[in-house]
Amino acid sequence: MKLSDLRLRQRDSTTCGPSVAVVAGALVNPAYRSALTDSPRTWFDDEQLRVHTEVNRVWPRMLGTTPMGIARAVTTRTQVRGVRYRWRRFRGRRDRLTDVLHYAQAGWPVAMLVGRFIPRHWVLIVGVNGQTLRCYEPSSGEVRLVDVDAVRRSRLTGLGYPRPFAFVLPSSTAATRSATS
């Protein structure tokens, strides 16, 4: 699936999280991916709304989606591969991002919550090449390149906000296998 060609944009200002969950599922789950590629725009818009409703039963939708909600949404879409997702906080400059880089290199999508002073926006790490992350940014529908050191130093550019707050990544040993196998 050539993600950058699909230009999948979030449907409104509060569906960045559901957009990330849908794209993560499509990258990992072949059946889910075929639903997306058969009718990208309509299906993607409808699925964002469905995911947002599914994971925000108590949390107000106008406040976006929590890290626990994103972990649950991605797990639901990747369970066919036997992988559960969990969330963890960004640890600041001392965060080596070893787990994030490991899973991204193995082909597993990793969600990253970014903001300035408070968490505001979800993006999806869809690959890594050396010290450069490939990040799906749902408000534009583009895949943008981000330096790993910029993540560590909270100096992100091109993702809307400079600071990471949390990551949603695989927690299962099944995830040590490549996502594309």
What does this structure look like?
With about 180 residues, the protein is α+β, with helices and mostly antiparallel strands. The protein is built from seven helices and six strands. The protein has helices at about 5, 15-30, 30-40, 40-55, 65-80, 100-105, 150; strands spanning about 85-90, 110-115, 120-130, 130-135, 140-145, 165-170. The protein has a six-stranded antiparallel β-sheet, sandwiched between helices. A hairpin with a 2-residue loop joins β3 and β4 (about 130-135). α2 (about 15-30) packs parallel to α5 and α3 crosses α4. The longest helix is centred in the N-terminal third of the chain and has 16 residues, at about 40-55. It is globular. About 40% of the residues are buried. The mean pLDDT is about 90.
- Terminal Cα separation, in Å? 14 Å
The backbone outline, from C-alpha atoms, is globular
Query: What is the strand arrangement across the widest sheet?
Result: 1-6-2-3-4-5
What is the helical fraction, as a range of percent?
25-40%
Question: Strand-and-helix sequence, N→C?
Answer: HHHHHEHEEEEHE
Query: What do the pLDDT scores average to?
Result: 89
Low-pLDDT regions: none
What's the Cα radius of gyration? 15 Å
Major sheet summary line: 6 strands, antiparallel
